[in-house]
């Protein structure tokens, strides 16, 4: 009798509905198992029956059933508004922040350099490509934010649940490579800004070390509230807008030509060079680590996921906020393109040198050789040109804008590195150790490049190489985010529609194809068409293609276009720990149906 009473008390404390395993590609059935307590607290046991779970394991699962990420230590409360209101500016303000942090990746030094080269090479003719890239980026970021809101987990955590161990490790390595490439652009850009502001007194490697130290300092501001960190980023974005906006109004480009280039999707009299620059624009804007970052940043808001309406509202306001943020970043990018479209298009080194010779006080006028070749522009030479053409104030304002771009993007890149490492590897180190490791992984190759370069003037071409590296890593963010948001097992009723699945897949295929073309062109231009070059690349290229194909297989399974195969390598996780608490009331059983739940337990144990 005592044993029966104890068992009854245990059952009354814990009532569960166990639903049989649903393959990732078969969203017609109900989703993974749920646990509902009488107090209304929802927990997901990832397909493990509570009756067969040891007490220690059960307590641990209860603690970590939702994302246990401690990188965001404080969360912003969302205000309650009267029912029936279509739009609330108070709520929009509460949700404002993550989208602007995400948009910083569209304003990093790599993007700024791509912008100025776009203006110098094609004048205003590629502004429509920049606009299209921002629109595509917004739609992809929408998927990332939606995943974080609906699941309560960021992309790296979901990937840890979905993919088998070996592919998961490879995926983590690919994303780390992308983060390192992005971080190198950002840190080097900041170091160049220090070099410009100090008239060369702060060498490149010293600027790299300074950036590393101040990034540590700024990142721990969120211990005093995540809003304070967001305001810091807002100040940096404002600095960029004022700096590059100042250059725009000083240069005074033709507004009519700017509008024409923005809204007429054509490039008259353009050749291979302009086409490759268009490819570079797309590659610079859509960055792989940013999708992982955005899915984590949306968790900074305290969203009541037990209410479907709250999840829907969060998705809506995050999309609006992301749209506003990317509009701001687009305008800033347009400022940069227009300035150098007006000032450097078809200019020769000799012409710019003559301008520099006529203006005394410019620190490094010798950067432009005395020849009739078209100017090869980068962040450093662009600053020198502005100083020669419009005075030292324009040079220093440019450097301040570059510093804001580099500093802000370095911080968000470091955040992305922490989220990715923590999600894929489930590291339980103290936060300062994780920050140190992620910074060390990215900073060591950057410092090496700074020392080997022996001067700012030797970094021309580095941006193309780093963009090329990131382009190759793009499938390892695009394919997973489409996979996860297409699966009803993960997203439930919030999965993206068939039409949007097709659109996202097609859009991603085009972007990936463009990037692979850029990579092929980069290799042939810099290494030649020699047989031994392609032989040396054949092994990594084959491995790359096979891994991308493997991820595509999972994606097609998630969309239901193909049936999953048997085998450990192709198996999907049967016990994904992703819950759907807004379904709680619909799924919650009454005491009279207790026998049904016990039968469900029995059925699950047989699985």
UniProtKB/TrEMBL annotation:
The chain crosses the membrane at residues 121-141, 192-219, 231-251, 275-295, 316-341, 379-401, 436-456, 468-487, 499-519, 531-556. InterPro entries: NRAMP_fam (IPR001046). Its main location: membrane. GO terms for molecular function: cadmium ion transmembrane transporter activity; iron ion transmembrane transporter activity; manganese ion transmembrane transporter activity. It is a multi-pass membrane protein. Keywords: Membrane, Transmembrane, Transmembrane helix, Transport. It comes from the Eukaryota. Residues 39-68 are annotated as: Disordered. Belongs to the NRAMP family. This is PhoLip_ATPase_C domain-containing protein.
């Amino acid at each position: 009798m005592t044993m029966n009473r104890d068992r009854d008390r245990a059952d009354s404390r814990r009532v569960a509905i166990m639903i049989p395993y649903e393959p990732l590609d078969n969203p017609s059935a109900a989703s993974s198992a749920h646990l509902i307590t009488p107090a209304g607290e929802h927990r997901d046991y990832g397909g493990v029956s509570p009756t067969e779970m040891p007490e220690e394991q059960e307590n641990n699962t209860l603690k970590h059933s939702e994302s246990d990420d401690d990188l965001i230590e404080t969360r912003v409360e969302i205000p309650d508004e009267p029912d029936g209101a279509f739009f609330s500016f108070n709520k929009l303000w509460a949700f404002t922040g993550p989208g602007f942090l995400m948009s910083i990746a569209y304003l990093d030094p790599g993007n700024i350099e791509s912008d100025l080269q776009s203006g110098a090479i094609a004048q205003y003719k590629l502004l429509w490509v920049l606009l299209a890239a921002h629109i595509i980026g917004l739609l992809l970021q929408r998927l990332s934010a939606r995943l974080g809101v609906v699941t309560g987990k960021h992309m790296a955590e979901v990937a840890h649940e979905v993919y088998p161990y070996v592919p998961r490790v490879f995926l983590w390595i690919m994303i780390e490579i992308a983060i390192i490439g992005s971080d190198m652009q950002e840190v080097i850009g900041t170091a160049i800004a220090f070099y410009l502001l100090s008239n060369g007194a702060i060498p490149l490697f010293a600027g790299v070390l300074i950036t590393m130290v101040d990034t540590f300092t700024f990142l721990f501001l969120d211990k005093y509230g995540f809003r304070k960190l967001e305001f810091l980023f807002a100040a940096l974005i404002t600095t960029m807008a004022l700096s590059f906006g100042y250059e725009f109004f000083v240069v005074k480009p033709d507004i009519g030509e700017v509008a024409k280039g923005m809204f007429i999707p054509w490039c008259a009299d353009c050749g291979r060079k302009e086409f490759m620059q268009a490819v570079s624009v797309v590659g610079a804007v859509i960055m792989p680590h940013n999708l992982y970052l955005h899915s984590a940043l949306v968790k900074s808001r305290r969203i009541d996921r037990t209410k479907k309406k709250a999840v829907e509202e969060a998705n809506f306001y995050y999309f609006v906020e992301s749209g506003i943020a990317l509009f701001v970043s687009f305008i800033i990018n347009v400022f940069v393109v227009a300035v150098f479209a007006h000032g450097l298009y078809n200019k020769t080194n000799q012409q710019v040198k003559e301008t520099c010779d006529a203006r005394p006080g410019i620190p490094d006028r010798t950067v432009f050789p005395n020849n009739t070749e078209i100017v090869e522009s980068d962040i450093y030479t662009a600053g020198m040109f502005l100083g020669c053409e419009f005075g030292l104030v324009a040079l220093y304002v440019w450097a301040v804008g570059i510093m804001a771009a580099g500093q802000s993007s370095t911080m968000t890149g470091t955040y992305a590195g922490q989220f990715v490492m923590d999600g894929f590897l489930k590291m339980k180190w103290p936060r300062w150790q994780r920050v140190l490791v992620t910074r060390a992984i990215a900073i060591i190759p950057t410092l090496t490049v700074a020392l080997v370069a022996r001067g700012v003037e030797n970094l021309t071409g580095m941006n193309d190489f780093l963009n090329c590296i990131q382009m190759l890593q793009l499938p390892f963010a695009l394919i997973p985010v489409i996979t996860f948001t297409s699966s009803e097992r993960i997203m439930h009723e919030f999965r993206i529609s068939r039409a949007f699945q097709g659109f996202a897949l097609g859009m991603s295929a085009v972007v990936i194809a463009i990037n692979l073309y850029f990579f092929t062109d980069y290799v042939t231009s810099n290494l030649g068409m020699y047989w031994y070059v392609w032989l040396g690349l054949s092994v990594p290229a084959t491995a790359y293609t096979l891994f991308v194909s493997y991820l595509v297989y999972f994606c097609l399974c998630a969309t239901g276009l193909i049936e999953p195969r048997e085998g450990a390598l192709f198996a999907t996780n049967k016990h994904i720990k992703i819950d759907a608490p807004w379904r709680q009331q619909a799924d919650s059983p009454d005491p009279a149906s207790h026998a049904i739940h016990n039968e469900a337990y029995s059925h699950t144990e047989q699985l």
